[in-house]
Structure formats: C-alpha cells, structure tokens
Write a structure and sequence with these properties.
With 292 residues, this protein is α+β, with helices and mostly antiparallel strands. The chain has 10 helices and 9 strands. The strands form 2 sheets. Strands 3, 4, 5, 6, 7, 8 and 9 form a 7-stranded antiparallel β-sheet that branches. A two-stranded antiparallel ribbon has the order 1-2.
C-alpha cells in the first residue's frame, strides 16, 4: 500500500478513488463468504467511513451484493464476470490443463499454475492429485511469493533488477522473519541453477513439500509459474530432486513447445470450442532450463 500512496502523490494520472475501490474488491478471497465493512477495512487498511462509501457505491454499480440480514457483502456476478473474462483470455491455461492433469495423476501431487498478485502468486488453474490430500487451494487462491516453490520460481524468472526491487519490498514487509526467508530464497536460487527448478520443503506450510518452474513469455504476458506439491511424507526432498522436479520441468518444456507450435496440443472433448492459434507469437523461454 505504501507504493500506491507514493505513486498517487506523484502521478497526476493516478486515480486514488478507483484504486481504493479495487482494493475493496480484492479484499474478497475464495471461500470467504460474507464480509462486513469492518473486516474489509482491516484487510485494506482503509478507514471504515471510506470503506462504507465504497461498498455503497460498488453495491449501486452491481459489483457487490448486500445481504441486509447480516449487514455484509459478497461479490456479485458483474465482479465475477471480470475474473472469468481474464481467465478466458489466458491461452496458457487451456493448453496446460491436460499436461497438469497427467502430472497430478502420475505423481499424486497437486499441480497448479499462477501469476503474481502483489506479494503473492494467484492460482488461475489447478489439478488435484490422486490422493485424498489437498492443501485446500483452488482457482483464485493466493500463496506467498517468498516461501513457496511457485513464488520462488517466479522470482528467478525476473531480470536481476526487478528481482532486487521485489525482494526489497518483501524485506520491508516481513521484518524479523526476513533473514530466514532470504536464506530460503537463496537456497532456491542455487537449486534453480543446478536443477532448473525451485524447492520449498516445509518453509511455507510445515508439512507441504513442492517444486516450482517458471515459464517466461516474450509476448509481454507473464511470467507465470507452475508448481507440484504434496505432503512431506509423499514428497521427501530426494523425490523432489530426482523425480517430481524433473517431471515438472519436462511438463513445462512440453507446454512451451506447444506454444511455439513445435508440438500438437493434446485434445479433449472440450477443446473443440477452445481452439487457440499460436501463429505470430514470440518465442518463449523457460527460466533456468537450457534450450536445445
């Protein structure tokens, strides 16, 4: 939020009221249910009177629905339509789905792809593994950049100056936890350089181990990052390094080849209505994986 305030003070084109309204919409997370003005104010760090005016306006515009009985709000269909429109325009999502499902079935882990949302990675597609275990994450869920395999893969897909800028923001937000977090990020960089993927083993959630691989695209979108994770008893570090990590790298390279037109995309009965052309797209590069 500090950067937004600084930008607002120096950028005459920046509309503070719009920024605050969008922050209110962003306050709603998957499986939240209803939120009141006080809860929204706590999440957005905005004054409650400001939040009250914003929720009133957003309700009048149809983006929020008020449940009068509880004096709380939920996202309304017009707000959801924005998200669905964004998802439908992510070509990588449809192309990756079959590959992700196959890897989830073969490894028993959950496989997901996400993009940056401030200091988090937001899932925009996920396939659950064959086991009954689940981290309880779904499309729209957010996980931290700093301590997860997906987030660290994203970090190391960035140019060095952009990565340093993001790390500075994370350091300012994490306080006393920063030394341990930074040590984990450095280890992830070493793993990326050696194997082509990142690892998070109990650094986000104590009993969750996972690997991450980024897909950096040269057409102006992304970068995106994939992960594959499971409970620590299923994915120990040896298995992450020698089996799951290489499988995830191979999966992302296959997706890259499809985006480049070198391989045919796998077909299913739903894809007849989701045909996508890769003609004219710029080449893609997978961060940390040598090509050729």
């Amino acid at each position: 939020m500090k950067r937004v305030k600084k930008k607002a003070a120096t950028d005459r084109k920046f509309v503070v009221a719009l920024s605050r309204g969008l922050d209110v919409l962003r306050a709603f997370h998957p499986r939240d249910g209803l939120l009141g003005n006080q809860e929204i104010a706590a999440r957005t760090k905005l004054p409650k009177p400001t939040v009250s005016r914003l929720t009133y306006t957003l309700t009048k515009l149809g983006y929020l629905a008020q449940v009068s009985r509880f004096d709380k709000y939920q996202l309304a269909p017009p707000a959801m339509a924005i998200g669905y429109a964004a998802l439908s325009n992510l070509g990588i999502r449809g192309i990756a789905e079959m590959h992700m499902r196959r890897l989830a079935e073969d490894t028993g882990g959950d496989v997901a792809v996400g993009a940056r949302d401030r200091l988090s990675m937001m899932y925009f597609a996920q396939c659950r593994g064959a086991s009954s275990w689940s981290a309880g994450l779904d499309t729209g869920s957010r996980i931290p950049i700093s301590t997860t395999a997906m987030g660290r893969a994203y970090l190391y897909s960035l140019p060095e100056d952009k990565r340093a800028e993001l790390l500075e923001i994370i350091r300012d937000r994490t306080g006393d936890k920063w030394p341990a977090i930074y040590a984990g990020i450095q280890r992830a960089g070493e793993t990326m350089a050696k194997y082509g993927f990142t690892i998070s083993a109990g650094e986000w959630l104590d009993d969750v181990h996972g690997v991450g691989v980024a897909l950096r695209m040269n057409d102006g979108t992304g970068p995106y990052a994939f992960n594959c994770g499971a409970p620590s008893f299923r994915f120990n570090e040896d298995k992450l390094i020698h089996e799951v990590g290489p499988r995830l790298v191979a999966m992302v390279r296959d997706i890259e080849a499809i985006l480049d037109g070198a391989l045919a995309a796998p077909k299913n009965k739903n894809q007849e209505n989701k045909k996508m052309s890769t003609r004219g797209r710029a080449p893609r590069e997978i961060e940390g994986v040598r090509q050729g």
